[in-house]
Amino acid sequence: MWLVPPPGRVVVAVDDTGAVLGTANMYANRPGNGSHVASASYMVDPAHHGRGVGRALCEDSLTWARAAGFRAMVFNAVVETNVHAVRLYESLGFSILGTVPEGFHHPEKGYVGLHMLHRPL
Ligand SMILES: CC(C)(COP(=O)(O)OP(=O)(O)OC[C@H]1O[C@@H](n2cnc3c(N)ncnc32)[C@H](O)[C@@H]1OP(=O)(O)O)[C@@H](O)C(=O)NCCC(=O)NCCS
């Protein structure tokens, strides 16, 4: 699922020793006439959260999407309780377009909203 085929792209973030700290994939959000909008996903080793790895991965994917000619990036499903992710994306220029009420069944918090975020490139 993670290793999307070209023209999508998958990257890892490494430290000075080459240890993998996190990864991102990036791709067209939709095929055909929706393929001018990009999307991406990120995951960082919990042992390295809060050190800027997620920010670096997100910035890298925005640079890739812009260079590849995409007109915008969207995140289709960001759980509203994922406050660090939402804050990170908003700080990089994304806006919450809307929220699917109770769109995600959180294992501890129950039914919570699912945001869609957008950033023009
Ligand atoms: C979301 C995720 C990719 C962010 O990666 P990260 O490397 O921790 O992010 P950064 O270090 O760049 O920090 C991003 C923001 O969150 C804050 N943050 C991240 N983890 C934190 C923690 N454990 N405690 C406090 N703040 C934290 C940072 O301070 C920063 O906020 P700021 O810019 O206002 O200071 C990472 O938490 C993750 O992999 N989560 C699980 C998978 C996931 O949710 N992916 C995204 C799905 S939409």
Briefly summarize what is shown.
With 121 residues, the protein is of the alpha+beta class. It has two helices and six strands.
Task: Please give the order of strands in the largest beta sheet.
Answer: 1-2-3-4-6-5
Report the structural category.
alpha+beta
Distance between the termini: 26 Å
Count of separate DSSP helical elements: 2
Which range best describes the helical content: under 10%, 10-25%, 25-40%, 40-55%, 55-70% or over 70%?
A: 10-25%
The average pLDDT score comes to 97
Low-confidence stretches: none
Order of helices and strands, N to C? Answer: EEEHEHEE
- CATH architecture annotation: 3-Layer(aba) Sandwich
Major sheet details: 6 strands, mixed
Task: Describe how the helices and strands are arranged.
Blueprint: E1 9-14, E2 20-28, E3 37-44, H1 53-67, E4 72-79, H2 83-91, E5 95-106, E6 110-120
Parallel strand pairs: 3-4
Antiparallel strand pairs: 1-2, 2-3, 4-6, 5-6
This protein binds coenzyme A.
